[in-house]
Specification:
This protein has 125 residues and is mainly alpha-helical. Helix content is 74%, strand content 0%.
């Protein structure tokens, strides 16, 4: 009897962990859930969705560039006169400024092209 008790103590949790999933599977499938309907019904709605995604990405990248400006400022303040650290902070600040400039230019391109082509107001993005 001691051997059975020792076996149950040693291997009981392992056997239970193998048997319990079989009991859960025996429940049956859950009832079907209500699937939400998609708002994408045409090409215009796909373009609208893409414009929304690009707008979110634009603002995310602008916030990320501002964070890099703050990191560059922190590096500059903690450089302590070390020319290498000051140069590294300057490069980080330069790259962040270039990233903000490129993001702003990329955001303005549809409007500039639309005005040159005589589209009036560009409603796409």
């Amino acid at each position: 009897m001691k051997k059975v008790t020792a076996f149950a103590k040693m291997f009981g949790p392992s056997i239970a962990s193998l048997v319990l999933p079989a009991l859960v599977i025996a429940q049956g499938p859950p009832p079907p859930a209500n699937v939400p309907q998609s708002n994408i019904t045409s090409l215009a709605s796909i373009l609208s969705l893409l414009c929304t995604v690009f707008a979110w990405m634009f603002w995310f990248l602008v916030v990320l560039a501002v964070i890099f400006v703050l990191i560059a400022a922190f590096r500059y303040l903690t450089a302590g006169g070390n020319p290498e650290a000051v140069g590294s902070a300057g490069h980080t600040l330069l790259y962040a400024a270039i990233a903000i400039g490129v993001a702003l230019i990329a955001r303005a391109v549809p409007f500039v092209v639309g005005s040159f082509l005589g589209a009036g107001t560009v409603n796409s993005c």
